[in-house]
Design brief:
mainly alpha, about 80% helix
Length: about 475
C-alpha cells in the first residue's frame, strides 16, 4: 500500500486542484458569464460525448491494463499496443458511417425538442473521439505506474482552459459560438499532449501481426466495452433524458448538483490510477491474499477520506447555494441522493478493478446492461412526474442496485468482502457529524460560514481518525504531516 498511498496522494492533490478550478467554473463563471440555456447546452454536449466515447474506445483501455502484464516478450507487448491503437479507429469509422446515415433523424429530433443543440451535434462525436484516445494513452501510462501527468491532464488541463475561455467570453474577446468550438479544441489538445507523453514512456515498434491469445483479447474487449460503459451511462443518462423531457436550462441546474456531489468521487479516481494495474497483476499472478488485503484497505481508506468530503458537502450545501444565482438553486435532496451514490462508490474500493480484470467481467456486463435498462425506465417514469428530483431518485436506485450487485459478485466468486470492523465505526462517525453540523450555522456571510464550519469539522474528524486509528496508513500520514511521535 506504500506505493499506492504515495501516488494516490499526488493524484488526490492534482484531482482536487482540477475540481477546485471546475467548481469555480461550474458555480460562478458559467452561471454569471453565460446564459442559462447555453450553460445547459454545454452540459448536454459533454454528457452526450461521455455516453459515446466508451463505444469509440471499444474497451481497449481496459484491455490494455488487463493483458499487458500477461505478455512477457517485447514483441507480444508491441503487438498488443498496436492493436489498441488501431482498433478504435476502425470502430469510430463504423460509428461515423452509422451517424452519417442517421444524421437527418438527429436533426429532426433536436429541431422538435431543443433546437439550440442542432448546430453543434457533430461536436459530440469529435469530443467523444478525442476523449476515447486520451483514455487509451492514459491507460498506456498507467502500465508503467506513471499516472500523475495523465491525471493532471484529465482533471486540471481542460478545466483551466475552460476558465480562460469563459473569461474571454466575458471580455467579449470571443463569442459564445466560438467558445463552444474552442472547448472541442481543448479536448483535442489534451489528447495530443497525452499521446506524446505515452510514447515518451514506451514507443512500440510498428507490427501489424496480431498478439498471441488474440481471441481472448478480442472477446474481452468486446464485452468490456459494454460493461465499462455502464457506469458512464448511469452517470450521464439522466442529464440526456432531462434534455428530452424538460427545457435545456434544467440540464445546467441538475449539472451543478451533480458536480457538487461528484467531488466525493475524487479519492476513488485518484487511487484507481494505481490500484487498477496492481489488481490486474495480483489476478494474473493469482496472488489472492494480496488481492483481498488491497480490497479491504482500499475500501476503508477511500471511505474515511470520502466520508469527510460528504460531511463537508451536506453540512454546507445551503450556504453554497446562497452564493450562486437563484435560478440555479435546487432541492438539497438531489445533492444528498447523488452524494450517497458517490459515497457508496468509494466504499467499493478496487471492486471494479477486480471484476473488470478477472474472468467474471461477463457477469458485470449482464448486470450492468440490465441496470441501465432499469435506470432508463426509472428516468422515464420519474422525470415527467418529479422533474429533476425524479432523475436523482432514478440514479440513486440504479446505482445502489448496481454497486450492491458488484459487492455480491466479488463475495460469491472470491469469498471476501470489502468491509472490516472499522467500516461500521467510520460510518457511525459520519452520521453523527452530518446530523450534528447540518443544523448548526453561523450568522455570517456564506463564505465565512462555510470556512469556519469546514475547519471545525475537518479538525474534529481528522483528530478522531488519528486517535481511534481508523486506518494504519492514514494514521501514519497524519503523524508524518504533523510530526507526532508514535505511541
Amino acid at each position: 500500500m506504500g506505493v499506492i498511498i504515495k501516488q494516490s496522494l499526488r493524484n488526490l492533490v492534482t484531482t482536487y486542484l482540477g475540481f477546485g478550478i471546475g467548481a469555480i467554473n461550474t458555480l460562478f463563471l458559467f452561471t454569471y458569464f453565460l446564459k442559462q440555456e447555453y450553460y445547459g447546452l454545454i452540459t448536454f454536449l459533454l454528457s452526450a460525448a461521455n455516453l459515446l466515447w466508451p463505444f469509440m474506445a471499444f474497451g481497449v483501455h481496459n484491455t490494455l491494463i488487463k493483458f499487458f502484464s500477461f505478455y512477457k516478450t517485447k514483441q507480444q507487448k508491441d503487438r498488443l499496443l498496436n492493436l489498441v491503437l488501431f482498433l478504435p479507429i476502425v470502430v469510430s469509422i463504423v460509428l461515423g458511417v452509422i451517424v452519417a446515415f442517421s444524421y437527418s433523424l438527429l436533426i429532426n429530433y433536436f429541431t422538435e425538442g431543443n433546437g439550440l443543440v442542432r448546430p453543434y451535434i457533430w461536436l459530440i462525436f469529435l469530443i467523444a473521439f478525442a476523449t476515447s484516445y486520451f483514455e487509451i494513452f492514459f491507460a498506456w501510462s498507467k502500465l508503467f505506474y506513471r499516472s500523475v501527468f495523465g491525471n493532471f491532464m484529465k482533471e486540471v488541463f481542460h478545466r483551466f482552459c475552460i476558465s480562460i475561455l469563459l473569461l474571454a467570453v466575458y471580455f467579449n474577446w470571443i463569442t459564445v459560438h466560438q467558445f463552444i468550438y474552442c472547448i472541442a479544441g481543448v479536448f483535442i489538445l489534451r489528447l495530443i499532449a497525452m499521446k506524446i507523453y505515452a510514447f515518451s514512456l514506451y514507443l512500440p515498434r510498428l507490427d501489424f501481426k496480431l498478439p498471441d491469445n488474440f481471441g481472448s483479447v478480442l472477446k474481452y474487449t468486446s464485452l468490456i466495452l459494454i460493461a465499462g460503459s455502464v457506469a458512464t451511462a448511469l452517470l450521464d443518462l439522466d442529464k440526456v433524458m432531462i434534455e428530452y423531457f424538460m427545457p435545456i436550462e434544467n440540464v445546467a441546474v441538475y449539472g451543478i448538483a451533480i458536480y457538487i456531489a461528484t467531488v466525493i468521487s475524487v479519492p476513488q479516481k485518484a487511487m484507481h490510477q494505481i490500484t487498477n494495474p496492481l489488481t490486474a497483476e495480483f489476478l494474473n499472478t493469482k496472488n489472492i491474499k494480496s488481492l483481498e488485503d488491497l480490497y479491504k484497505r482500499s475500501s476503508l481508506n477511500l471511505l474515511i477520506i470520502s466520508l469527510l468530503i460528504f460531511i463537508l458537502i451536506i453540512t454546507n450545501v445551503k450556504q453554497l447555494y446562497a452564493l450562486i444565482p437563484d435560478e440555479y438553486e435546487l432541492s438539497i435532496v438531489v445533492v444528498l441522493l447523488i452524494s450517497l451514490v458517490k459515497l457508496y462508490d468509494n466504499l467499493l474500493g478496487n471492486n471494479n478493478s477486480i471484476l473488470f480484470n478477472s474472468d467474471y467481467y461477463r457477469l458485470v456486463l449482464f448486470t450492468g446492461v440490465l441496470l441501465v435498462v432499469v435506470a432508463f425506465v426509472l428516468n422515464l417514469i420519474f422525470i415527467p412526474i418529479l422533474g429533476i428530483e425524479g432523475a436523482a431518485i432514478a440514479s440513486f436506485i440504479a446505482f445502489f442496485l448496481y454497486n450492491s450487485a458488484k459487492i455480491w459478485l466479488v463475495y460469491r466468486k472470491f469469498n471476501f468482502l470489502p468491509f472490516t470492523s472499522k467500516t461500521w465505526l467510520v460510518l457511525f462517525t459520519g452520521i453523527i457529524f452530518s446530523l450534528g453540523f447540518y443544523f448548526w450555522d453561523f450568522n455570517f456571510h456564506p463564505i465565512l460560514n462555510i470556512s469556519l464550519k469546514s475547519i471545525l469539522i475537518g479538525v474534529a474528524y481528522i483528530g478522531l481518525t488519528y486517535f481511534l486509528n481508523f486506518s494504519e496508513e492514514l494514521t501514519r500520514i497524519i503523524r508524518k504531516l504533523i510530526k507526532i511521535k508514535p505511541f
